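Notes from hallway chat w/ T.B., transcribed later so I don't forget. T.B. wanted the structure written out for a chain they're using in a teaching module, and asked if we could keep both sequence and structure tokens in one place. Agreed to drop them here.
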Amino acid sequence: MILNRIFKIDENHAGLEVSKAYKDYRFPVEMLANGQNYHGIDNTLNKPHGKKELLNYIIKLLSKGTKQYDPFVNQVLQTYSWQDLNDALEILLIDGVIQVIFKNQKPRKSIEWLPKIIKLDPRALEDLSNEVPDFNVELLKLTNMIDRLIYKTKNPLKENILKWIKDVEIKDQNDVSIADRNSFKKYKSIILICAYYISLEESEQKIPLRYLSNQIWNKPKVLSLYKDDVLFLTGLTLKELDSILLPDLNGNLDSPLIMISPLEDFQAIITWISNLEVCNINHNEILLSINNMDDNVKTILKLIGVQNSIFESFLLTFTVLKEKLIKENYCEAQLFISNDLDKEIIKLRKNILKIEYVRQQFEFIVLEELGRGSFAVVYKVFDPYTNKIVACKVLFPSSHFKRAYKNDGTEYILRFKREVKLLSEKLHHENIVTVEKIHLLGSPFWFTMPLANYSLDKWLKNNPNASEEQRIKIFKSIVSGVKYLHGKKKYHRDLAPKNILIYEMGEKLEVKIADFGLAKDPESHTLHTGKSKHGYGHEDFTDPEQLNSLADSTNLSDIYSLGALLFYLLTSKLPKKIKYVHVTCEKVILRAMDRRNRRYQSISEFESELVEFYPNI
């Protein structure tokens, strides 16, 4: 082998992963190199490198099996130059299409890596092993989809799409071919991105591009590979495209947010049965719950596609439970759930989460970060199971707490679980936010809630000319929620503009209190309640006594915050400006924010004095 025909790589290349194997030497004797990211063979072939023919040739050779490097090179060099082959190998390696095993020729003296074996990456092999569809059938399906999406539109881009379908080729303004039947994935993707953009824009809808990619290709990132091509061909700006086909932040998350909904629904019914008092069980309700669980099991089976041993074990255990419930052996049933069925559910959940297309079907798509506190972050997310955009509050991972607070986050996990318990089980009021989906079975912990249009601070910025009457109506709703809380002997302890959510319901506004991470529940036996040194509230709106000691907070802490919020609502200024800005009900605000012994001692007392200034509201 001539030296200039040795393919060499830089081990520190940003796009590469290398792993070294030891045998009988102190030094690694083999090194496997592969690309970190893989975006599909079509994407690699259609990059503007001018080596599509050679890349195709190499892939076809390797698709027949692993090759020894020397004979492989000799075969390719009968048709192509060494420089082209070297460039092609680098492209394929960085793109994750191939893997190369290098051998350390002199491990005891020096490190001299020489290529030994070349083969296709398993990800590329999987793509190639998929059955090649009938092109004419696929084209007919694509044409029908386009007809449904854009047949009524007058958008000028429609003509381009119809021409691409007719010609079975996409060409740019310079008559250069971008994609055709030989790169069908790219061809289909570009056409559908354009068609969905037109359709959604005209119907004033938005969906994540990741969701659309999952629906079309059962893979989340395929369509994003062709965004630049779409922008080039259509003249759209990235902002315009992203405003309809929403980008996501999933790649930046510490962990994916996934809930396999039919299994969670099944688990919820099981939990309900476990907590029933045997003496008060209604048999008709049990029979109805069995029917609901049967429906969930059928859905799970559809998701899995084929029965496997874990599902069969789960199904057998569930069948035993049904027999006990039908025969009204409720004590046995509850014991059986805790001893047997719960374990089967855990095993089934782990098994389902290993199935990639199922994960993608239920993984939340994170669109943007709405805000973060000392122990959690709130995201705007798309739920693919319900096709709804919601807010999702996610507890930070343990690594965050170790880095920020030098602890394992136990206190914050307890806070988070207490917040979920309060909102899902104990607090039900029109002015308190509701939770929808809850995930507390393992990290990351999270729950979803309806997505608000604004937090209070953002609403005020967007509505600087809002009337005093409207501002007081919002405040009355906040007071109503806090009064309900205090009636339940619970205190929020973090009433601040970012924790007041505004929902636009036509011309009406709905106001809801959120973020109960600091809420105090006297019924809670958690040792950490009230002892945190971190995240004790928003300083401008927090009772000074609470700032000194969270454990000393009482109902009077919330009354202080209400006074601060009232000033903020009426003036759009922070409470520390109260000495410089006059408001109508200044007397009420000052007393609410006074020392505890001079402060209103109850919400009712606070309300009664406020009515003196606003009797008609």
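Follow-up for T.B.: Confidence is low (pLDDT under 50) at residues 525-535. Might be a good example for the class.
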